[in-house]
Amino acid sequence: MLNLSGATVVSPTRSFSGNLFDTEQAKILVVDDHPSSRLTAVALLSVEGYEVLEADSGSTALAQVVETNPDLILLDVMMPGMDGFEVCRRLKQDDATRLIPVVFITALNDRRSRIIGIEAGGDDFLTKPFDRLELSARVRYLVRQKRLNEDLDHAEQVLFSIARAVESRDPNTGDHCERLVEVGKAFGEFLQLSRAEIRNLIWGGYLHDIGKVGIPDAVLLKAGKFTPEEREIMNQHVLIGEKICKPLRTMQGVIPIIRHHHERWDGSGYPDGLMGDRIPFLAQVFQIIDIYDALTSERPYKLAFPPAKALEIIDEETAKGWRNPKLIKQFREFVLTTQTNAIVKNFTAQSSVA
Ligand code: SIN
Ligand code: FE
Questions:
Q1: Atom number, ligand 1, closest to the C-alpha of residue 262
Q2: Are residues 116 and 255 in the same domain?
Q3: How far, in Å, from the CA of 338 to the mean position of ligand 1?
Q4: Which residues, chain by chain, have CB under 5 Å from ion ligand 2?
Q5: How far is the CA of 56 from the centre of ligand 2 (A)?
Q6: Which of 89, 118, 150 is the endpoint of a domain?
Q7: At 51, which CATH number?
Q8: One digit per residue, pLDDT tens: the chain, 354 residues?
């Protein structure tokens, strides 16, 4: 690599972990109701250079985790009060603690405990008496894994932050993304899509227009009609969005939504002019939600249409060949059912007040 003065700059070498924080001392929480049982683990881990914390019950362990955010937990199974399985379940259900690896300490050959432990979300098992080398190898591996998972989590959060910044730059959107997320989830459930598909619809709600980060204000914020050149630039937002999200493996399911949310059923959309069922299904589903929300919300250039009017406009577009007629029919049913549910809900809420 050359810098401006022409001198060779050598990139600093570091181990291939991709994480700047790997030199930080890892914190291990040892949870066991018997002080003598904690003693061995604490001694072994301290010798390995870890910072070791201790808890003598399930409930103190949960409080300690919140307070100290450890990198790994060695967890005894049998404890009075809350047992280890319950502690693990609670940690794995909470977004703030789910990435912390949990290693259960079980008796040798306790098959039943291992199965319950796996179901509770445990990451590994160790048996007593500890084998020093095994303990150290497993702990090292899981701590490294946890930090890689955290990096991935951070990368996802960066994308969501960019998407939010884009939304705040675009006067057309307001709370558009939040509503898309809510309606996407509800319509996905109505269509009985899988959990993964619903997750992708939800992520699509936040990320579909992330590529607008690369569209100049002169185009993005233009009030009037686009010239053909401006239209060409605006259409790039789906390709830019795909490029931004592509490097992350966890984004693979959302990419079809990002790239294809402006295709049309008759092939007149962009960027690929895909026709009919060549358009990825989730992109078709997402597009309807996106359009319906745009129609039913106020924009700088228009008032909010009532649902019936919005459905009528979508029907006109379907008659022109732009949308999947079967899916539009399902969407209409969904809107009507949701409205009925909302009316019933309001009605029962009012009657219970009265
Ligand atoms: C949008 O993605 O919000 C609009 C794009 C377009 O005008 O085609
Ligand atoms: Fe878009």
A1: 8
A2: no
A3: 27
A4: 209
A5: 54
A6: 150
A7: 3.40.50.2300
A8: 333 333 333 333 333 334 444 557 899 999 999 999 899 999 999 999 999 999 999 999 999 999 999 999 999 999 999 999 999 999 999 989 999 999 999 876 788 889 999 999 999 999 888 888 999 999 999 999 999 888 888 888 899 999 888 888 876 666 888 899 999 999 999 999 999 999 999 999 999 999 999 999 999 988 889 999 999 999 999 999 999 999 998 899 999 999 999 999 999 999 999 999 999 999 999 999 999 999 999 887 788 999 999 999 999 999 999 999 999 999 999 999 988 777 667 666 665 554
Quote the ligand 2 centre to 149 CA distance (angstroms). 30
Residue with CA closest to ligand 1 atom 8: 235
Q: Which residues have a Cβ under 8 Å from the Cβ of 309 and sit 6 or more positions away?
A: 295
> Are residues 142 and 217 both part of a single domain?
no
Residue with tokens 């399930």: 58
- Domain of 39 in residue numbering reads as 27-150
**Closest Cα to atom 4 of ligand 1:** 234
CA 234 – ligand 1 centroid, Å: 7
* Least distant ligand from the CA of 234: 1
Measuring from atom 2 of ligand 1, which residue has the nearest CA? 209
Instruction: Name the residue at shortest CA distance from atom 7 of ligand 1.
Output: 234
Rounded distance, CA 302 to CA 36, Å?
Answer: 72
Hey, what are 13's tokens?
Answer: 């070498």
The 10 Å CB-count burial string (b at 16+, else e) for 229-244 is ebeebbbbbbbbbbbb
Q: Are residues 116 and 232 in the same domain?
A: no
User: 182 with 66, same domain?
Assistant: no
pTM of the model: 0.72
Instruction: Tell me how far the alpha carbon of residue 80 lies from the centroid of ligand 2, in angstroms.
Output: 55
Strands 51-55, 102-106: pairing is unpaired
What separation in Å is there between the alpha carbon of 214 and the centre of ligand 2? Answer: 13
Q: Provide CB contacts within 8 A for 86, sequence distance 6+.
A: 58, 120
| Inter-CA distances, 226 with 138, 183, 269, Å | 59, 29, 16
List, chain by chain if needed, residues with CB within 6 Å of any ligand 1 atom: 209, 234, 237, 262
